[in-house]
């Protein structure tokens, strides 16, 4: 009984507290329009959106560079995450009040981004040590909470924004999330008796980056995120383009549930497979199938909701599942000794995908087809959104090729290298 309690109290619960907090970064779309209005039109929506892109970029890059720090002391790194995330959120409120876009970039993009990266990494190895026989389930549980954060935080943020204003909302959330993350920091602990090896790892950062298996996983991860962001960033507009304006919010909530469900479901399923990489093959095959059907039928242009909505569900589930499976897949190939460092390096793919996925999709939409008003007066470009599918379709095929021919079958290593 004591072991069961420790497993949840010392690993699962703190991971949920930390990831449910930092996952709020995906709620940026709920405040970006209000920020533009607060600035009295002196900034554009496109320029404000860079705050989110910078946050994702610094999430990935801080995870890549701070992996050894997290590896050495997860207790200290989780505290750094709590401080950076809450200070960045409070600073965002302050600079909104000062009408300083550069200050918002610094706080939401850089400082919060560093908190995101360290917070994302800190609980992962601890979870895999406690749940050594169910690594996928454990990491999926935590990373699913990162995806569910938007569903949980959205109504809270809307309430606070309407009741107290956007500046005070950021101050209140900064305190609220610091408390949650600090409790997670206090609870987080590795299993009793676990001692980190003090000898230097045989693999340097350079050797890891040159490893063909790591390169394959990195590319596969990057492509899945890029394709996911390309479609998810246009999701609301696509729903409007097929004539479902009235239930766009409901569909957005359901896709968020698929995103979180994919994080937990795919990773838990992978625990029962001989080769965890099989999950990625399934994700890419499903993505290719649903994207291809929508392309062949010109589904977005023709308004075929029966194809487009399932496509969005599949892409969201695969996007989430791709995240949750990476830590365990890396541990299968490289062992547990330096998993935080290796996982951090792999998360740099997230950084670059955050700067390319939605931007490429926006470019395609803005430069192909033509915008027109729908029945409700919304500007939509069905041809442009349809053309985004060609881009993702090709990349999913490349990712499937990598999953079959570049990444070798896992040996399901149960012990550290």
TrEMBL record:
<keyword id="KW-0812">Transmembrane</keyword>
<feature type="transmembrane region" description="Helical">
    <location>
        <begin position="279"/>
        <end position="301"/>
    </location>
</feature>
<feature type="transmembrane region" description="Helical">
    <location>
        <begin position="136"/>
        <end position="157"/>
    </location>
</feature>
<feature type="domain" description="Major facilitator superfamily (MFS) profile">
    <location>
        <begin position="205"/>
        <end position="417"/>
    </location>
</feature>
<feature type="transmembrane region" description="Helical">
    <location>
        <begin position="342"/>
        <end position="365"/>
    </location>
</feature>
<feature type="transmembrane region" description="Helical">
    <location>
        <begin position="238"/>
        <end position="258"/>
    </location>
</feature>
<feature type="transmembrane region" description="Helical">
    <location>
        <begin position="214"/>
        <end position="232"/>
    </location>
</feature>
<keyword id="KW-0472">Membrane</keyword>
<feature type="transmembrane region" description="Helical">
    <location>
        <begin position="51"/>
        <end position="70"/>
    </location>
</feature>
<protein>
    <submittedName>
        <fullName>OFA family MFS transporter</fullName>
    </submittedName>
</protein>
<dbReference type="InterPro" id="IPR036259">
    <property type="entry name" value="MFS_trans_sf"/>
</dbReference>
<feature type="transmembrane region" description="Helical">
    <location>
        <begin position="102"/>
        <end position="124"/>
    </location>
</feature>
<dbReference type="InterPro" id="IPR050327">
    <property type="entry name" value="Proton-linked_MCT"/>
</dbReference>
<keyword id="KW-1133">Transmembrane helix</keyword>
<dbReference type="Pfam" id="PF07690">
    <property type="entry name" value="MFS_1"/>
</dbReference>
<feature type="transmembrane region" description="Helical">
    <location>
        <begin position="77"/>
        <end position="96"/>
    </location>
</feature>
<dbReference type="GO" id="GO:0005886">
    <property type="term" value="C:plasma membrane"/>
</dbReference>
<feature type="transmembrane region" description="Helical">
    <location>
        <begin position="385"/>
        <end position="407"/>
    </location>
</feature>
<dbReference type="InterPro" id="IPR011701">
    <property type="entry name" value="MFS"/>
</dbReference>
<feature type="transmembrane region" description="Helical">
    <location>
        <begin position="169"/>
        <end position="188"/>
    </location>
</feature>
<dbReference type="GO" id="GO:0022857">
    <property type="term" value="F:transmembrane transporter activity"/>
</dbReference>
<keyword id="KW-0813">Transport</keyword>
<feature type="transmembrane region" description="Helical">
    <location>
        <begin position="307"/>
        <end position="330"/>
    </location>
</feature>
<dbReference type="InterPro" id="IPR020846">
    <property type="entry name" value="MFS_dom"/>
</dbReference>
């Amino acid at each position: 009984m004591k072991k069961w309690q420790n497993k949840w109290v010392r690993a699962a619960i703190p991971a949920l507290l930390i990831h449910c907090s930092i996952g709020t970064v995906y709620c940026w779309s709920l405040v970006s329009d209000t920020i533009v209005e607060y600035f009295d039109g002196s900034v554009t929506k496109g320029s404000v959106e860079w705050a989110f892109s910078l946050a994702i970029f610094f999430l990935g890059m801080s995870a890549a560079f701070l992996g050894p720090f997290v590896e050495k002391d997860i207790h200290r790194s989780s505290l750094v995450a709590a401080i950076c995330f809450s200070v960045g959120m409070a600073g965002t409120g302050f600079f909104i009040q000062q009408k300083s876009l550069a200050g918002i970039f610094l706080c939401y993009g850089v400082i919060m981004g560093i908190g995101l990266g360290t917070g994302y990494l800190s609980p992962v190895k601890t979870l895999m040590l406690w749940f050594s026989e169910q690594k996928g389930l454990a990491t999926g549980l935590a990373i699913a909470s990162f995806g569910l954060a938007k569903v949980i935080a959205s109504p809270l943020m809307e309430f606070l924004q309407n009741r107290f204003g956007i500046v005070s909302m950021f101050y209140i959330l900064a305190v609220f999330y610091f408390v949650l993350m600090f409790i997670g920091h206090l609870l987080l602990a590795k299993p009793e008796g676990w001692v980190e090896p003090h000898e230097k790892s045989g693999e340097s950062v350079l050797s890891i980056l040159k490893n063909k298996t790591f390169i394959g996983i990195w590319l596969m991860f990057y492509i899945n995120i890029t394709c996911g962001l390309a479609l998810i960033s246009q999701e609301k507009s696509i729903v409007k383009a097929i004539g479902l304006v009235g239930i766009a919010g409901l569909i957005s909530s359901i896709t968020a549930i698929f995103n979180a469900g994919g994080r937990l479901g795919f990773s838990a399923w992978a625990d029962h497979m001989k080769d965890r990489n099989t999950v990625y093959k399934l994700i890419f095959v499903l993505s290719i199938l649903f994207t291809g059907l929508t392309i062949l039928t010109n589904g977005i242009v023709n308004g075929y909701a029966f194809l487009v909505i399932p496509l969005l569900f599949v892409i969201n589930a695969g996007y989430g599942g791709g995240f949750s499976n990476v830590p365990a897949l890396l541990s299968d190939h490289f062992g547990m000794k330096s998993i935080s460092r290796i996982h951090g390096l792999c998360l740099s793919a997230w950084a670059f995908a955050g700067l390319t996925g939605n931007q490429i999709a926006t470019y395609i939409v803005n430069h192909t087809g033509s915008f027109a008003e729908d029945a409700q007066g919304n500007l939509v470009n069905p041809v442009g959104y349809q053309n985004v599918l060609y881009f993702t379709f090709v990349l999913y095929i490349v990712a499937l090729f990598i999953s079959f021919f570049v990444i070798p079958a896992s040996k399901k290593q149960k012990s550290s290298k």
